[in-house]
Design brief:
With 213 residues, this protein is an alpha/beta fold. The chain is built from 9 helices and 8 strands. The chain binds cytidine-5'-diphosphate. Cytidine-5'-diphosphate binds next to helix 2, helix 4 and helix 8.
Length: 213
């Protein structure tokens, strides 16, 4: 079974997808972590995120896999926590916008899911990577709520406003790009998560999946 979950930054996709994968005994596929891993390598090599050819070369050569907890391994080494840092977060939407980077990464995502099913989450999993997924969801929440969640996650609750601004800037880049923009697939179920805990959202999705709705 393949379940695909898309939505804007910090809409709770990772937490919910991870929990859902655990419940259903499926692989959790964090597609954003893969673009973050490519970006980490781009920055480490001193390549400009705007340099499409160099980014594409790096995306083609990098070996990406996941450990048992769904954490990305970059050439066998843990990508966490560096892939969540401010430098990678600021550059990732530029790197991920290159068609050549996506062409290198999408087949890796499809191969991981082909080996026994997955709960995948990202920006284009419902539209481009797994258009035939068994279940598709599009999670949304207000920018303020998402800023609050991200600040909480990072242990800096007082900086919710700054996180909200960073999130909105990245959403704008992801929505307006030419290749695989962030958008809701017509056949994806819209789930508004404002005011809901991750557990509540997970239960809702689980009910749709198990109820066959
Ligand atoms: O966790 P957060 O919502 O901050 O973002 P993420 O899922 O880690 O994704 C980081 C960035 O990777 C996004 O802002 C997109 O630019 C890019 N991305 C993408 O282009 N396609 C995906 N399927 C997933 C992420």
């Amino acid at each position: 079974m393949i379940i695909a979950i898309d939505g804007p930054a910090a809409s709770g996709k990772s937490t919910v997808a991870r929990a859902l994968a655990q419940h259903l005994n499926l692989t959790f596929l964090d597609t954003g972590a893969m673009y973050r891993a490519v970006t980490l390598r781009v920055l480490a090599e001193g390549v400009a995120p705007e340099d499409e050819e160099a980014c594409e070369r790096i995306a083609g050569l990098i070996d990406l896999s996941f450990d048992g907890q769904g954490r990305v391994l970059v050439d066998g080494e843990p990508g966490e926590p560096q892939i969540r840092g401010a430098a990678v977060t600021a550059a990732v939407s530029v790197v991920a916008a290159h068609a050549g980077v996506r062409a290198a990464i999408v087949p890796k995502q499809q191969a991981i899911a082909a080996a026994g099913g997955a709960v995948a989450e990202g920006r284009d999993t419902t539209t481009v990577v797994f258009p035939e997924a068994d279940h598709k969801f599009f999670l949304v929440a207000s920018p303020l709520e998402r800023g609050r969640r991200r600040a909480q996650e990072r242990g800096e609750p007082q900086r919710a406003g700054e996180y909200a601004a960073e999130i909105e800037r990245r959403d704008e880049q992801d929505r307006t790009r030419e290749h695989s923009p962030l958008l809701k697939a017509a056949d994806a179920r819209l789930v508004d998560t404002d005011g809901c805990t991750a557990e509540q959202v997970c239960e809702r999705l689980l009910a749709y999946v198990l109820g066959g709705a």
